Amino acid sequence: MSPVKPSFETATRVAARAALPVLVGPAAILVLAAAGGARPGPAVLTAILAGFGGLYLNARVRRVELEAAPVAAQAPAAQQKAPPFAMILERLPDPLMVIAADEADDLTGRRFVFANAAARELFRIQREGTLLVTAMRNPQVLEAVDEALFGDIERAVEYETGGSQGRSWIAHARPLSEGPEGSRLAMLVLRDETDARRSERTRADFLANASHELRTPLASLSGFIETLRGHAKEDPVIREKFLAIMQAQAERMARLIDDLMSLSRIELNEHIAPLGRVDLAMATIDVIDALTPQAKEKAVSFDPVLPPRGAAVVEGDRDQIIQVVQNLIDNAIKYTPTDGVVRVEIFPGLAADAAAGPRDPAAARMSLLTPDHAAGERYAALRVTDRGPGLAREHLPRLTERFYRVEGQKSGDRSGTGLGLAIVKHIMNRHRGGLTVESVQGEGATFGIYLPMAKAVATRPVAASAEA
Amino acid sequence: MTEHTVKSYGEELNHLAAEVTRMGGLAEAQIADAVECIARRDAPLAQQVVARDERLDILQGEIERKAFRLIALRQPMAMDLRHAVAALKISMSLERCGDMAKNIGKRALILTDAEPMTALTRSIERMGKLVEGRLKDVLDAYSESDLERAIGVWGRDEEVDEHYNAIFRELLTYMMGDPRTINACAHLLFVAKNLERIGDHATNIAEIIHFEITGEEIISKRPKLDTPR
């Protein structure tokens, strides 16, 4: 670090001085073009950055005059040799901003003079000169920026943004030189620490959950083993019975480990938007086919209401979408009594309100996951309705908790791992979708998911057919 | 970009809005920290939360003064008047949110002395995250003048209510099961109530934003849940 820092500071200072005269004249345009900054960015900064470019070339001949025109003079050469610094900053994956301030006590008056593409996207900054607070409200970060501006102090602040896809950031505030007309400049760079934080937390959660939930079947396994080695040793009937139970327990443990693993995998990727497209209807048909034997065993039949192929294409990861649909339908089969019907419906082209909206106004209803608002987004909704015992209102908010079990439910069916809906929720969160549940006690429950439709398709006749 | 005094009337209005947004950031941080104190049993942080509330009060006073000054000197009409009044009203709402965060901080100080009740504090934490998300959404809507987003927040109040009702029942069960927990549970009940009120303030702010942008009240009825029996 240390050999880099001083030279960087000198660079900034000199570059700023060199850039100032250039600013006013038409040379600024030249510099812009030379630096490859075709973007109509803030002239001040681009010029300063181009100054970097000039300086880079000048490194060996630093003592050669740097006063008025050197930046422009370097321009043709810069095209060939110097990396285009302005563009590099612009394309940097980490959000980088430069903030200017005039007076120390005018806390709201800090403005962006430069924000690279990543920063503009993150904060939805539309133009230069935007007030800093409209994009960044965190008081600690604002404080660090102030210290960099007026105290020449470098500081790093950790902070988190809320919402369903919360992220952890480290914000580095660094003082820059004085800007034009006595205003002060500071740089703010953000680094996304979400991955690191999340894997830390997931590891801790995983250990806590796994150790607790795996202990139960393990305890019963070792209990049976003890009995088999003891007085049940010579009894073939009992041995057979015990071995069957032990196998079931071992299978349960395997399922549990599978689910825990897939849950932690999903959690790690939760903030990364999925690539690819999935036809929700086709995926549902596949799942229904796969689950038919299981349904036949219980004499449960399906009542699917599906749109034609291509009408409900959503953005998503096919394997994960299949997992969601499978978990929901699998649950429905489990809770539907013998000879019952599981209803599976898909509605494409809904607005967010309609997709999350209730179907039966009398039912207890709860949104277990609501996506961050996105204007004009169209959703495809899948609803799976069972005719089981239903759920009391007080259980609804906790359904997606890991290992949450509704009390008073018949304990006969213990084949579930208690992770199914947690997995559904995390996958839906990754897909920027939603999850709802509706239930009338004694009459059954409806679980609904909705996913943003794939963009190109949403504008085609699909939307029209939904309105019709 | 480099003027010392605020140049234009429009800029003065923008400044007022930015001031409110900054106050919003402070309120958000206070609430997040308050919930954190409950979840992590962090007494020093709780003390900080209690001490920092004053900053919100000061900011609110400043915004009020600026808004009055702007109204008196510039005599804004229509949209501009709504901007000024919205800033005034939202800052009052945020100040109340801060008070509630402070109250949660105080209760966290008491709760750190009692036995930990992880299941309950986890429910509170979940509700806290939900409320934080709503406040964040509505403040984003304010700083971006995003009407749809504000309406989105306004329509989703029931989620918080559901959480509150669930926590209410959970706490009752605990208190009936073990009378020794009554003290702590009563405090947690107030914490949940405070969070629920913060959620209401987010809804209220959404309504103010709606009026600010359109000049009309939101007419349709908001879905509302009954209080638990």
Give an overview of the whole structure.
The complex is a heterodimer of chains A (468) and B (229). Chain A is of the alpha+beta class. Chain A folds into three domains: 8-192, PAS domain (Beta-Lactamase, 2-Layer Sandwich), CATH 3.30.450; 198-271, Signal transduction histidine kinase, dimerisation/phosphotransfer (DHp) domain (Helix Hairpins, Orthogonal Bundle); 273-468, 2-Layer Sandwich (Heat Shock Protein 90). In chain A, 47% of the residues lie in helices and 20% in strands. Chain A contains 16 helices and 13 strands. Chain A has helices spanning 4-24, 27-34, 43-58, 70-80, 85-91, 117-123, 132-135, 139-151, 194-229, 236-268, 280-297, 318-335, 352-356, 420-430, 455-458, 461-467, and strands spanning 96-101, 111-115, 155-161, 167-178, 184-192, 277-279, 301-305, 313-315, 341-351, 364-369, 378-386, 434-440, 444-452. In chain A, the strands form three sheets. Chain A has a six-stranded mixed β-sheet. A five-stranded antiparallel β-sheet of chain A has the order 2-1-5-4-3. In chain A, helix 3 crosses helix 4 (70-80) and helix 11 (280-297) runs parallel beside helix 12 (318-335). The longest helix of chain A is centred in the middle third of the chain and has 36 residues, at 194-229. Chain A is elongated. Residues 1-75 and 457-468 of chain A have low confidence and may be disordered. Chain B is built from seven helices and no strands. Chain B is 82% helix and 0% strand. Chain B has 229 residues and is mostly helical. Chain B has helices at 9-40, 43-74, 78-111, 118-144, 147-154, 157-177, 182-214. The interface between A and B is large, with 44 and 41 residues.
